[in-house]
């Protein structure tokens, strides 16, 4: 068996609230990040601005030096942005790199309990801390752009106009975040109420309890008005179907409620 990597517990990433839901497993944390369409990246813009800045961005975990590395190995986070964005400008002038916090969250279910206090979500969340630096090597930059593009729809890079033109490369910035700490948090399962509420028949006979699964469903592809390709390519339709099915199956399994077979599909 291979080595299992975990992020070391530090003051910045140790989960204290509901610590039993925490994970420091590198593979689990990277999986949450890579399955999230949007990452929220926070940084301090400087002493002239007292408020931290948070930007929604597209990003992926990967290793340019070791492209075959899997999610369970140490990886960098590559994030995509416009060349003149403020974060890129600050990172450009930073020798060590701009300190950033990257967060991602997936909601898998609505937990409807007997009391409002016990309501919750089934969820997966991840937080990473690291130092962002601009990628200046064109080979690494193009590699990162391909990885990020294929995270939207697999195989999309090779099925679009590539390689990018020089003007496109120069107008796009890729930030490489060297990760120094990370943590994840996962809640799954069914309703959890206090014993005294379960024993109150006036409440249990009136209040419906259970889990509403939440999952992403990708819709039917709609061709652009200028599209000239008659049939939607198989790599798109197969991804739409598989992504929707996998999301649904995970959300239902996360309830940990035994369903009749006819309700599982």
TrEMBL record:
Pfam families: Pyridox_ox_2. InterPro entries: Pyridox_Oxase-rel, Split_barrel_FMN-bd. This is Flavin-nucleotide-binding protein.
């Amino acid at each position: 068996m291979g080595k299992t990597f975990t992020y070391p517990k530090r003051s910045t990433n140790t989960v204290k609230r509901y610590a039993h839901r925490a994970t420091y497993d590198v593979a689990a944390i990277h999986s949450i990040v890579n399955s999230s369409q949007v990452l929220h990246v926070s940084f301090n813009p400087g002493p002239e601005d007292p408020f931290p800045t948070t930007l929604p961005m597209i990003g992926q975990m990967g290793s340019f030096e070791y492209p075959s590395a899997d999610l369970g190995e140490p990886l960098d986070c590559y994030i995509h942005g416009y060349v003149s964005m403020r974060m890129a400008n600050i990172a450009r002038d930073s020798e060590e790199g701009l300190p950033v916090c990257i967060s991602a969250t997936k909601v898998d279910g609505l937990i409807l309990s007997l009391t409002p206090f016990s309501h919750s979500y089934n969820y997966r969340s991840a937080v990473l801390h690291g130092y962002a630096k601009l990628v200046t090597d064109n080979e690494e930059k193009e590699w990162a752009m391909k990885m990020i593009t294929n995270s939207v729809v697999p195989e999309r890079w090779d099925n679009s106009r590539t390689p990018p033109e020089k003007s496109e490369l120069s107008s796009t910035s890729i930030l490489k975040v060297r990760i120094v700490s990370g943590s994840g948090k996962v809640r799954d399962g069914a309703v959890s109420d206090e014993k005294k509420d379960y024993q109150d028949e006036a409440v249990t006979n009136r209040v419906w309890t259970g889990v509403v699964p939440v999952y992403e469903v990708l819709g039917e592809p709609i061709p652009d008005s200028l599209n000239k390709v008659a049939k939607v390519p198989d790599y798109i339709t197969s991804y739409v179907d598989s992504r929707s099915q996998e999301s649904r199956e995970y959300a239902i399994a996360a309830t940990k409620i035994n369903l009749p077979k006819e309700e599982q599909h």
